[in-house]
Amino acid sequence: MEGYLKANAENRMVRRVTQSQQALYVAEGGIEWAKAHLLVNPELRGGSLSLATGRVDIVIELSGGGYKVTSEGRSGLAVRKIEQIVQLESGKWVMKSYQELHR
């Protein structure tokens, strides 16, 4: 019985780590989605997407000649939130800062 409980606990830990990584990847995908859509619509201020591995909510704000893009990815019970400040220079996105936001 003890072996079963230990294996079950380890299985839950692995699942949580996997969901956390997926939530981060979904959040990073939200940043890329925002950059692609800002090229077409510079007035865009956010959006939401449902993906196979999770959901992402994106908020876009003007920031000193560029944009501050905040993306919150969810996968299972995991939530990861990142913020990137980007600026369009010569037709290419330049990342000015990147940080993960913690509650």
Task: Briefly summarize what is shown.
This protein has 103 residues and is an alpha+beta fold. The protein has one domain (2-101): 2-Layer Sandwich (Pantoate--beta-alanine Ligase, Chain: A,domain 2).
Account of the 3D structure:
This protein is an alpha+beta fold and about 100 residues long. It has one domain: Pantoate--beta-alanine Ligase, Chain: A,domain 2. Helices cover about 40% and strands about 45% of the residues. It has 1 helix and 5 strands; from the N terminus they run αβββββ. It has one helix at about 1-40, and strands at about 45-50, 55-65, 65-75, 80-90, 90-100. The protein has a 5-stranded antiparallel beta sheet with strand order 1-2-3-4-5. The mean pLDDT is about 95.
Main β-sheet, spatial strand arrangement: 1-2-3-4-5
Oligomer: single chain
Count of separate structural domains: 1
Separate helix tally:
1
CATH class: Alpha Beta
- The end-to-end span amounts to 37 Å
Topology record:
Elements lengths: L1 H39 L5 E6 L2 E10 L2 E10 L2 E12 L2 E10 L2
Antiparallel strand pairs: 1-2, 2-3, 3-4, 4-5
What key phrases describe this protein's structure?
103 residues; single chain; elongated
